[in-house]
Amino acid sequence: MQISSSDQRAKWIHPRDEIIATMQRIYRSRMTTTSGGNLSIRDTNGDIWITPARVDKGRLQRDDIVCVRPDGSVDGKHPPSSEFPFHKAIYAVRPDIGAIVHAHPVALVAFSICGRTPETRIFHQANAVCGTTGFAPYALPGSERLGESIAKQFAGGCDSVILENHGVVVGGESLSQSFDRFEAFEFCAKTLIHAGKIGKIQHLDETQLQLARDRSVDLDSIDAHEPTSNELELRRSLSEFVRRGCRQGLLISTEGSFSARVDDDAFVITPTQRDRETLQPGDLVYVEGAAREAGKKASRAVLAHQAIYRKHPEVQAIAFAHPVAATAFSVTDAEFDSKTIPESYVFLRDVCRVPYGVQYRGDGSIADHISSSSPTAVLENDGVLITGGSILATFDRLEVFESTAEALVQSRAIGPLSVMQDNVISELRDAFGLND
């Protein structure tokens, strides 16, 4: 597996600090509780660094983290997590695993208490990130039997394992990869729960998954690029909005691509294989014509962004994103209707549905599905596409899209949907100058 830039940076971070930062992120996103969950890292010496037992997960300090040596001796002021036995058992059967995340996020717990494992073939990135999934029968928490049950799944090649009536355990080469898998698995579970309320879920077959895997981008290199003050401002703004989107739950660390136009045929775009929440302005990739900034890898969606900019000069920013409720519409046959409240229609206009795979083609046909009267789209089994006249306008549309989608999902529990009638839409179009 290719080592990401995040993993390269992490090798200079002490395990104590990396565990604390990751636990803070999990806790802040409400994917664990004060008392629940545990993280560990196995370092190059074979030492296992792990969160302690019975210590507030929302206020961990670096001296709270416990080190368990290969000989079983413990270095720390607390005992290691009571779940240490299954961490040790996983490491014993999987030499390739360097870090483990265990927690009780709501959606995955829902699957665990129903005795089911989320199907990740609803969109390609979740399937790729989560790896092979498995299910471990119930055993007493902290027991050797639980460790044996979980280790059996990992020994069979699983990377993300549901624990019956308990939660989830994921492993990876690094803690950043384990977190990515954990976050993507929970996101997949949430999407499936939403999707199950609104329509028939559409899974991808192997041919469709391969179509996404086979995407490749071969751009020339711009060896010397000096950013203008305008580009620097766009980089700052774009990276800030991407981070905000992650913290608002609109995005996750491994999903989506985001860009802003710099000039007629130039734009900055998010890089591939980088944690979205940690992006800095300098991490974004400058693309001009058939070339990209030297030493960086642009998102594999770069050609789709470029095609939209070339066909639509009014578009100044683009987001291919996967907010949970909106993505539920993309993985089902349910219609997304923006005629719910005035804000939804005014911001989103007429939302089209793009057949699966159009955005992966190199022919630029994705740009044909966007217009001034239809600036947003649902991408079958791949989230949504948002365009706008600025970074702020695009982000605003993304927020409205997800809020509308969530309202539509929740309305199913109340009664039949009452959409705004044609005369109301005509009034809105006249009032807000939408008759282009």
UniProtKB/TrEMBL annotation:
UniProt cross-references to Gene3D superfamilies, sorted A to Z: Class II aldolase/adducin N-terminal domain (3.40.225.10)
* EC assignment: 4.1.2.17
GO biological process terms on file:
pentose catabolic process
Please give the superkingdom of this protein's source: Bacteria
Recorded GO molecular functions are:
L-fuculose-phosphate aldolase activity; metal ion binding
Q: What are the record's GO terms for cellular component?
A: cytosol
What SMART domains does this protein's entry cite?
Aldolase_II
Domain Class II aldolase/adducin N-terminal, residue spans = 17-193, 236-409
Enzyme category, top tier? lyase
Q: Is Iron-sulfur one of the keywords?
A: no
InterPro entries (UniProt xref)? Aldolase_class_II_sugar_metab (IPR050197), Aldolase_II/adducin_N (IPR001303), Aldolase_II/adducin_N_sf (IPR036409)
Q: Which UniProt keywords apply?
A: Lyase, Metal-binding
Give the PANTHER family listed for this entry. 3-OXO-TETRONATE 4-PHOSPHATE DECARBOXYLASE-RELATED (PTHR22789:SF0), FUCULOSE PHOSPHATE ALDOLASE (PTHR22789)
This protein is called L-fuculose phosphate aldolase
